[in-house]
Amino acid sequence: MSNPPFGFGFPDPDKRPDDESSGAGGPSGSGADPFQQLGQMLSQLGQMLSQAGSSSGPVNYDLAKQIALQRLGSEGQLGFAAGDRTGEGAVRDSARLAELWLDEATILPTGASVTAAWTARDWIEKTLPTWQRLCDPVAKQVSSAWMQALPEEAKQAAGPLLSMVGQMGGMAFGSQLGNALAGLASEVLTSTDIGLPLGPESTSALLPKNIEKFTEGLERPASEVLVFLAAREAAHQRLFAHVPWLRQRLLATVEEFASGITVDTSALEQLAGQIDPANPASIEQVMSSGLLEPQTTPEQKAALGRLETLLALVEGWVDVVVAEATGDRLPGAEALRETLRRRRATGGPAEQTFATLVGLELRPRRMRSASALWKLVGDRHGMKSRDTLWSHPDLMPTAEDLDDPIGFAERLGDTGALGEGIDPIAELERTERAEGDSGTVDKDKDDGGKEGETDEDGGEGAAGWEPGDA
Fold it and tell me: What ranges does the record list as Basic and acidic residues composition bias (predicted)?
């Protein structure tokens, strides 16, 4: 973890929101009415306290949303001749063309039933439920660590004030989350730009305004860039829609990593001994010393390894499929492919924002290795065999396979795992039936041996597509 997750750091007081006015009297605001400023401050404070009283959970998401939308300001424009429906039409046409090209590059059918052009404000609205799922484990761990660190005498003396402390903590987390999401919303290009399915299911979304800014330094036509990005978004949606276990496993692995965050509460004792109440600078110095940064556990390292491998496999597959779909049709496809590869590999404000929110860098470090593996499997065994590997997690390449893609491709042929005599979907359904029967037995035991009850989830998870469907 290169950055501590929110709650462990403080915002830079020297940085102000882009849309914050300095007042009519210049940078110092000396020309503004001091009583008016005081009234605005009290009004905002009262609004924040009322929101804190109505919020539940470790993060005040209402406050986060309000701050994010305020920070975005005029970023509500759609782009591509904003103010009319030209942007929406361009996105729909690009997505329709990209889907036609992808039909020839993968056996996975179209995954999006809705194609949308989002503004940055739309992105905040549509992705906030997923961010809540990802950020809650971090905030809960941080809050509980601080509360557990208090001596029993302090807890008893505080009494009802502890709930107020929790509300103030939720406001602090919400404020930091809102500022971080505002920065992220101003630069993401699609709903799957950071590799996770943040938006609603079966919804393909592009952000034309951000794509315009991204296109400025590429020396490529905006329409060409839009079609290429639409193909990437559509490929992600096909994968998330027709590989039933993928969406849940990605999000669950992030949750697992975040829920494992621990704080060395003994550091609080050192903190108390180093702070001079008469010297506010000592507080900032101690907080920036790293005493309260979360400790990475072995379980977290294992979860991070699984997440990086799965992200690399997703991004590598999308990279290969989109290259095959657009390579002969878009003159600048290869240049755009390399640009996005570097953008994802080197990271940027988007990855830094996610590191601040959840505590990890969401970067597919081995995307090039994964691309080479998917390309090799497709060349040797065909598109159908390549995409059939997604039918079950047990068929997927591992981190070791990324080190030896040639060996993985050879083993597929030697073992006949993807041969004509074996139907991976039939094997998957057989495994799921066995797991469902096992789940029913366990449930009966838990319920005291009641008969006639079944595990509702026992039959779910079957692949929603058959090899060869296109």
Answer: 427-452
The residue among 320, 88, 85 whose CA lies nearest residue 206 is 88
Whether the full predicted model's pTM is greater than 0.90, yes or no, is: no
Strands (E), 24-167: 114-117
Query: Are the C-beta atoms of residues 310 and 390 closer than 8 Å to each other?
Result: no
Which backbone phi and psi does 10 adopt, to 5 degrees? -115, 145
Residue 203: helix, strand or coil by DSSP? strand
Distance CA 123, CA 76 (A): 10
Q: Which of 266, 233, 261, 240 is nearest to 355 (CA)?
A: 261
- Phi and psi, residue 21, nearest 5°: -80, 145
Backbone angles phi, psi at 450, to 5 degrees: -65, 140
314, two tokens: 């997703």
Round to whole Å and give the CA distance between 261 and 279. Answer: 31
Q: What is the DSSP letter of 395?
A: G
Contact (CB, 8 A) for 286 and 168: no
Closest alpha carbon to 275 in 293, 265, 289: 289
272, 311 Cβ separation under 8 angstroms = no
Cα-to-chain-centroid distance, residue 317: 18
Model pLDDT for residues 14-52, shown as the tens digit of each residue: 444 444 444 444 444 444 566 666 666 555 555 555 554
Domain limits, the chain: 57-262+297-363, 366-420
- Segment (H or E) for 253: helix 244-259
End-to-end CA distance of the chain: 41
Segments in the chain below pLDDT 50: 1-2, 8, 10-31, 52-54, 82-85, 419-422, 427, 438-470
